[in-house]
Design a protein that fits this description.
The complex is a heterodimer of chains A (about 110) and B (about 700). Chain A is α/β, with parallel strands linked by helices. Chain A is about 45% helix and about 35% strand. The chains are: A alpha/beta (about 110), B alpha+beta (about 700). At the A-B interface, helix 2 and helix 3 of A face loops of B.
């Protein structure tokens, strides 16, 4: 089960993930990101502070957007992951492909630098 | 078989008692005529008569009352046939008498008595037959109360027989009272005519005819026996003697029987006669019930929706006597499907088009859920033979799937009753079709499950049956997938006498696609590994190969090893797979190798080479490599806690001295123990290598 909330701050779309992302709920994550892109945001923050678990299918969603974002010049930063979730990203090597920070401030700073 | 024997026995008893009756009675009459003291006691004929009646009663009870095959008309027919036989015999007796006419014999009281007794026997036989048959008819659809009343009637009659046998003095008032009571009882019982309702039109006519003839026979026999009894009585008194003969007129049982049988015959005749005009209504109701059943049952028996439609059309038409009908079913194609009955497609389309032109809601506009009588719109259509039309929507899961239209050439041909019935049919047909579709779906799902099972077997066969063995190390592997098809893969390949490749991989997601990707991974492993390339090069090429087959969002994590037993080294590359758990015997410690490397398919261009690296370490004797998939570390117990890396490392430490096979077995048993269930929800895969 996943709850996805979106709110906008200074032209940045913040997507907050609450709960667990498994194979079935990964579709909702995909939809949320696609909507954000569709609405024309080029700076997207993903708040993972309430994300308890992410399966390989959930990671696949982030992975699938990497090239599209590169082409469209969209930047995305994930922040606030707990250790377990962060470990999942690390093991797959997604931390090398995605921008991940500890706090929201760091994330904001990073996204405005680009 | 036993019943047959009883029937035969009873018949024999009946014949014997009748013969006995004639013998004794005639001898009495003869003796009294000649003023001789009779050799047989005077009470004997009465007793024998009663025995005769009882044997006949049981004879018919076994023959008619318990015969399940007989229907109402058969019963009437039996009564009629018995009456016919009795009448014919009686008539032939008259003929004999006529032929002998004028001789002394015919006027002799003994001869008159003989004829009288023969007729009496015939009458009693006929009456008993009718009595048994009427009993069956009266007790059809019996109630407790009715059954009790009948029992009283029957036992009462039996008591009168006993009364007669005892030859108690006849008391006038008791006689009349008993007679009155039995006649009233017979009248009350004759009110039970439920069986008449179940006759169809034809059967009613047959019944009327049979009953009429039965009544005729009854009257004839009553008349005959009456006249004989009088003539015997006259002949007896004429000679001035008091001759005692068996007079049925004093016999309560026979009188009661005569009145009851006659009453019920007349009642039945009248009831059937007055029921004739309403028969068609009852038959129609019955047909409605049958039709309704047909529609309900069509789900179990019919092979397609089409046959359900046809049954609906047929039953609706026959129930309301429509002259024509059509059933229009919405379909995805441009044109709706039309099932017709006694109407051409063109005619139907003309009417539909006409109603559409009139902008009538109800037939074509399926947005309305109201059943409508649209006859008034039909009158404006020229050249149509139909004057009445009734349309019904058919719903499946709340969605309108079509319309049933019934037509009549008569104006105002449909009444409210018909509307109600057909709308019930339409609803039932909707339910039938819905059930039918559900069943189809269930079958489809069953088929998918079957295919998934096949996929699972195929996938299982992709895993190696035998692992590459080597003197330098000891190796064991295990893989168990969850209910669904999983995507775990492990394999080994010998490159030369001192180099062996190992691989453990996990395809993202589950199901059939995962199994397909797994088989691709196997192909890639077997084709690339034998070229003896460095692990990172293996991953780069594998990634390149997979770019074209992995769909968006899918990836494969893998770790590839080359064990060199000559140099005692292991080179490996980790592509996003779970870090290798390594036990160093020298330090007696475990360690996870968290090297850089991203999963295959994550980066789909040449830059992948930047994200993968080869690593190398030397192994010592007693060192253990534990390869596994995330199903193991992410296995959860009932408190939702994960098995985790620490617990895994700890388990390996516990059994570090055992051979690889036992380490693996211990690890898996601990895992099942931890999760507390046999039903795993992810794949468990592990490969353990212990160096010697």
């Amino acid at each position: 089960m996943i709850h996805i909330k979106r709110l906008q701050e200074d032209g940045v779309d913040i997507v907050a993930l609450v709960g667990e992302i498994d194979a079935s709920s990964s579709i909702e994550l995909d939809l949320a990101i696609a909507r954000s892109v569709g609405e024309g945001f080029i700076k997207i923050l993903v708040d993972c502070s309430a994300l308890e678990y992410i399966s390989s299918a959930g990671l696949g969603v982030f992975m699938s957007y990497i090239e599209e974002f590169k082409d469209k010049n969209i930047s995305m930063v994930l922040f606030g992951m707990n250790d377990k979730v962060a470990n999942t990203f690390q093991i797959l090597g997604l931390n090398e492909l995605l921008q991940i920070t500890q706090s929201k401030d760091q994330a904001k700073q990073l996204i405005h630098e680009v | 078989m036993r019943t047959k024997a009883i029937i035969r026995l009873l018949f024999t008893v009946g014949v014997i008692t009748w013969l006995g009756l004639m013998l004794t009675d005639i001898s009495i009459v003869f003796s009294s005529k000649n003023n001789i003291q009779a050799e047989v006691p005077l009470w004997l004929p009465n007793v024998i008569l009663n025995l005769f009646i009882i044997s006949l009663y049981y004879y018919y009870k076994f023959k008619v009352e318990h015969d399940e095959v007989l229907n109402f008309v058969d019963l009437l027919w039996r009564v009629f046939a018995t009456g016919l036989i009795s009448t014919v015999i009686s008539l032939s007796l008259r003929l004999v008498e006529y032929l002998l006419g004028g001789t002394i014999l015919t006027t002799h009281v003994v001869f008159a008595e003989l004829i009288y007794l023969l007729n009496l026997g015939l009458m009693i036989g006929f009456l008993m037959m009718a009595f048994t048959a009427w009993k069956r008819l009266i007790l059809y659809q019996k109630s407790k109360w009715l059954l009790r009343l009948w029992t009283v009637f029957e036992y009462g009659l039996l008591l009168t027989l006993v009364y007669h046998s005892l030859r108690l003095p006849i008391v006038e008032w008791l006689y009349s009272a008993l007679l009155g009571i039995f006649i009233v009882l017979g009248l009350v019982l004759s009110g039970n005519m439920k069986w008449v309702a179940f006759l169809n039109f034809r059967q009613k006519w047959t019944g009327l005819l049979l009953l009429l003839l039965t009544i005729f026979y009854l009257l004839y026999i009553f008349y005959t026996i009456g006249s004989y009894a009088t003539s015997v009585g006259e002949a007896a008194t004429l000679n001035g003697d008091k001759i005692i003969f068996l007079d049925y007129r004093a016999h309560i049982f026979i009188i009661c029987l005569m009145s009851f049988v006659t009453l019920y015959s007349i009642f039945s005749f009248l009831v059937i006669l007055f029921n004739l005009p309403t028969t068609s209504v009852f038959e129609q109701k019955l047909e409605e019930v049958v039709n309704f059943q047909r529609i309900s049952q069509s789900i179990q028996t019919e092979q397609s929706e089409e046959s359900v439609y046809n049954i609906l059309l047929e039953t609706s038409v026959s129930t309301v006597f429509a002259d024509a009908a059509w059933l229009e079913i919405k379909s995805n194609a441009h044109e709706n499907k039309l099932f017709t009955y006694k109407i051409t497609d063109k005619e139907a389309h003309d009417i539909i088009a006409h109603l559409q032109k009139q902008n009538v809601k109800g037939v074509l506009d399926q947005g309305t859920d109201r059943t409508k009588n649209l006859s008034k719109h039909l009158s404006s259509l020229k050249g149509s033979r139909f004057r009445s039309i009734l349309a019904f929507p058919i719903y499946v899961k709340g969605e309108n799937i079509g319309t049933l239209a019934l037509l009549k050439e008569l104006a105002e041909g449909f009444n409210k009753e018909m509307t109600r019935i057909v709308s019930t049919f339409a609803n039932q047909a909707g339910i039938s079709i819905e059930n039918f579709r559900l069943m189809e779906e269930a079958l489809q799902n069953e088929r998918y499950k079957e295919e998934l099972k096949i996929a699972k077997t195929v996938q299982k066969s992709l895993l190696p049956q035998v692992l590459e063995q080597d003197e330098a190390f000891d190796i064991a592997a295990f893989s168990e997938s969850a209910d669904e098809v999983g995507g775990d893969y492990y394999d080994t390949l010998r490159l030369n006498d001192h180099q062996v490749c190992l691989i453990v991989a996990d395809v993202s997601g589950k199901g059939t696609t995962a199994a397909f990707h797994m088989s691709q991974m196997k192909g890639i492993f077997h084709s690339l590994a034998q070229h003896c390339i460095a692990p990172n090069e293996f991953m780069i090429r594998a990634n390149q190969a997979l770019v074209h087959c992995l769909e968006r969002g899918s990836f494969i994590s893998a770790t590839f090893f080359i064990v060199d037993t000559q140099a005692r080294t292991v080179t490996y590359a980790r592509a996003g797979h779970c870090p290798l758990l390594y036990y160093r015997a020298a330090q007696d410690a475990t360690e996870y190798f968290k090297d850089r490397g991203i999963a295959l398919g994550m980066v789909r261009n040449k830059s992948y080479s930047n994200f993968i690296q080869s690593n190398e370490f030397e192994y010592q004797s007693g060192d253990i490599m534990v390869l596994y998939t995330d199903g193991i570390t992410e296995a959860k117990d009932n408190r939702n806690e994960e098995f985790g890396y620490d617990r895994l490392a700890h388990v390996v430490q516990e059994v570090k001295d055992l051979p690889a096979r036992q380490i693996q077995e211990y690890m898996i048993s601990r895992l099942y123990e931890f999760s507390g269930t046999e039903n795993i929800n992810d794949d468990y895969t592990t490969m353990i290598v212990k160096f010697k």
